[in-house]
Write a structure and sequence with these properties.
By secondary structure, the protein is α/β, with parallel strands linked by helices. The chain has one domain: Aldolase class I (TIM Barrel, Alpha-Beta Barrel). It has an 8-stranded mixed β-sheet with strand order 3-1-2-4-5-6-7-8. Helix 6 packs across helix 8. The radius of gyration is 18 Å and the shape is globular. It binds iron/sulfur cluster (SF4). Iron/sulfur cluster binds next to loops. The site of iron/sulfur cluster has 11 residues, from loops.
């Protein structure tokens, strides 16, 4: 089966454990104001590549991919779930570690045939990197153009599937850089034992040039970048809130350590 691919990075160091072969796919239904890959939004204009082509190319770089594997990101990979299932099933046959970097926005439980695809995909996915864009539902819609319900339900599904999840959260001044929201995020995450890591990424405006080239107005013009120090501060707030809430859940008998 073929996927519609934006680009491939053969030495990825931030998209999962180790050094990774990273496949950026085309297509995304979100419109995050801070997106630095607006050129992945539309399916059109992508390069078509087959599962075999990708995995054979992966094998060429295998000696350099220390402790790594393959990561699919985007865009939103779950828009091409049939391709993803085939890619990861074949990758597992070749003993390759698989990581899915997703917003979870496509997840739906109400259609058995779709849920079955997710269950099949999870059998061959070693790690999920899930972006939680904003914990507040109204702010989430304003930031991404989409509701957050399916994303949070996808996190619940990962819990049921006992899949390891790393959460990623982008810290944007004036939007997510807010103590109350960060505490709410930590409190919300406390009940998920499958959440094994948290990455808080400072917002940067490296996407500006792409918007200019595409003739689009940059939505966050004038918003300052977040600093590494702010990201460390924010991560501590989230983790402290998580700890506090988990302690409360244990005391209430609602969480088994
Ligand atoms: S989900 Fe990712 S690719 Fe899609 S708009 Fe948001 S940041 Fe961009």
């Amino acid at each position: 089966m073929d996927g519609i691919i934006h680009s491939i990075e053969t030495f990825g160091t931030v998209d999962g454990p180790g050094i990774r072969y990273v496949v950026f796919v085309k297509g995304c239904p979100m419109r995050c104001l801070y997106c630095h890959n607006p050129d992945t939004w539309l399916m059109k204009g992508g390069e078509t590549k087959s599962v075999t082509e990708i995995l054979d190319d992966y094998e060429r770089y295998k000696p350099f991919l220390k402790g790594g594997g393959i990561t699919v990101t985007g865009g939103e990979p779950l828009l091409q779930i049939d391709f993803l299932i085939e890619l990861f099933e074949e990758a597992k046959k070749r003993d390759i570690h698989t990581c899915l970097d997703t917003s979870g926005i496509q997840f739906r439980r109400n259609k058995p045939e779709i849920l079955a695809k997710y269950e099949r995909l999870m059998k061959v996915t070693d790690l999920i990197m899930l972006d939680i864009k904003h914990i507040d539902p109204v702010e989430h819609k304003a930031l991404t153009g989409q509701p957050q319900d399916n994303i949070l339900d996808f996190l619940q599904f990962m819990e049921e599937q006992e899949k390891t999840v790393w959460i990623r959260h982008v810290l944007v001044p004036g939007i997510t850089l807010n103590e109350d929201y960060l505490k709410r995020l930590g409190t919300y995450l406390a009940k998920f034992r499958q959440v094994k890591a948290l990455d808080v990424l400072p917002y940067h405006n490296m996407g500006v040039e792409k918007y200019e080239k595409m003739g689009k107005e940059y939505p966050l013009a004038g918003v300052p970048e977040a600093t590494k120090e702010q990201a460390i501060w924010a991560k501590d707030i989230i983790l402290d809130a998580m700890k506090e809430e988990r302690h409360r859940l244990i005391e209430a008998g609602e969480f088994q350590p």
